[in-house]
User: Which sequence fits this backbone?
């Protein structure tokens, strides 16, 4: 099983590159779990999957059941966590042909703390990794921008249980995106969990001289290896605007470059 996480500065292309990676695995005929950890969830659209409910919605629902604002459905002999897990499996996990999708989402403003979502999600993910009937060949996680993901413990839980093989920090050629990558590396270095190697992957910098410069600056000033350059691809922009899945891309230079980057790591 290969587990990869896409992180980095906002708007650099994390979700797009995560979707292109899922496309790569799908074409290899591998069953993949796509996990959208961004509260502002969009990965489902790029994978052409319906968004059922999010983990945040389920937390909300159970909260309302407990306050008797909704009819309680939890059987008395079932623990809260078991009930939550069963709701995640029935309401949140979207099963695609080759790719399943799990979406974290966020709770409504009724819940003034975001913690229950992370707490419950941590357990659900752990259980899915341990016992879900469909074995995944790969897990691709799309993180929210910056380092917000790290104080939550979901990535740690995945890292502890299965190890995260690679963290790709998406760069857009700016110093800011390199600084965010550095912050991400610093966060990971504080952890004792099994986080794999962090690589930079640069999106939409098409000029060869600029690519060379970014590669050098990343390596010399940030100790960050850039494993690939994903070109601007108007078809990606068009499909995204028309709400069409990235899985249907054909003859895409961006997809070919993403594939090359993954293959260079023997993924
Ligand atoms: N290689 C590319 N060629 C053309 N358009 C691209 C490419 N990569 C990303 N885009 C476009 O750039 C925009 C931002 O991409 P995306 O949503 O993947 O970024 P993100 O890092 O996930 O953003 P956020 O931080 O908000 O989650 C989208 O409209 C996407 O279609
Ligand atoms: Mg995104």
Assistant:
């Amino acid at each position: 099983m290969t587990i990869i996480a896409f992180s980095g500065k906002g708007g650099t292309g994390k979700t797009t590159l995560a979707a292109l990676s899922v496309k790569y695995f799908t074409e290899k005929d591998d069953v993949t779990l796509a996990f959208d950890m961004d509260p502002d969830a969009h990965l489902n659209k790029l994978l052409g999957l319906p968004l059922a409910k999010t983990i945040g919605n389920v937390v909300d629902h159970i909260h309302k059941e407990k306050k008797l604002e909704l009819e309680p459905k939890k059987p008395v002999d079932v623990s809260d966590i078991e009930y939550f897990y069963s709701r995640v499996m029935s309401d949140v996990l979207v099963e695609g042909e080759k790719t399943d999708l799990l979406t974290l989402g966020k709770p409504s403003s009724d819940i003034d703390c975001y913690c229950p979502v992370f707490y419950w999600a941590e357990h659900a993910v752990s259980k899915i990794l341990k016992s879900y009937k469909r074995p995944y060949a790969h897990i691709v996680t799309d993180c929210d921008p910056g380092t917000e993901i790290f104080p939550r413990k979901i990535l740690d839980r995945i890292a502890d249980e299965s190890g995260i093989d690679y963290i790709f920090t998406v760069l857009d050629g700016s110093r800011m995106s390199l600084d965010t990558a550095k912050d991400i590396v610093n966060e990971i270095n504080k952890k004792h969990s099994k986080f794999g190697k962090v690589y930079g992957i640069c999106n939409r910098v098409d000029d060869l001289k600029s690519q060379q410069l970014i590669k050098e600056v990343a390596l010399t000033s940030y100790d960050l290896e850039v494993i690939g350059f994903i070109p601007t691809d108007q078809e990606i922009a068009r499909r995204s605007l028309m709400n069409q899945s990235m899985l249907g891309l054909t003859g895409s230079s961006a997809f070919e470059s993403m594939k090359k980057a993954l293959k260079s790591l023997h993924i």
